[in-house]
């Protein structure tokens, strides 16, 4: 008998969230471009576009067992470098309000993003020998 994979639900939730976020970056690109810090305003469009691709690819990869390593590194490569932008947003609450974002959500994003990064690391770790045969 095989042991149930405790990371399966996490991969489904994270994969759905990352894929949805990638799609949202395309559909609502003006909003996401406006979240790019002023210091990088010259590159807002490409940063937002690359983020959309990374999130979409990272999300889909969560569902494909052979691509778990790609999912891990793709998603972490997006989550870790965007933490400074999240911190920068906390220093501009009026700008966030003008975009329709509650400053409390901006503050909550920082620990939430760290938790998502930890969950991504955990959910995409190599499976044990028994779990290796399970789908997703």
UniProtKB/TrEMBL annotation:
Highest taxon above the source species: Bacteria
UniProt keyword list: Membrane, Transmembrane, Transmembrane helix
Classification via PANTHER family: DOXX FAMILY MEMBRANE PROTEIN, MEMBRANE PROTEIN-RELATED
Protein name in the entry: DoxX family protein
Residues spanning the membrane: 12-27, 47-64
């Amino acid at each position: 008998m095989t042991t149930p994979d405790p990371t399966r639900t996490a991969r489904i939730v994270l994969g759905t969230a990352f894929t949805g976020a990638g799609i949202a970056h395309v559909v609502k690109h003006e909003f996401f471009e406006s979240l790019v810090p002023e210091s990088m305003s010259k590159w807002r469009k490409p940063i937002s576009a690359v983020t959309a691709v990374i999130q979409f690819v990272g999300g889909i990869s969560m569902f494909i067992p052979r691509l778990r390593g790609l999912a891990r590194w793709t998603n972490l490569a997006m989550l870790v470098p965007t933490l400074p932008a999240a911190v920068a947003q906390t220093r501009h609450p009026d700008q966030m309000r003008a975009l329709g974002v509650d400053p409390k959500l901006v503050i909550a994003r920082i620990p939430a993003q760290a938790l998502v990064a930890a969950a991504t690391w955990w959910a995409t770790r190599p499976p044990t020998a028994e779990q290796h045969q399970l789908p997703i």
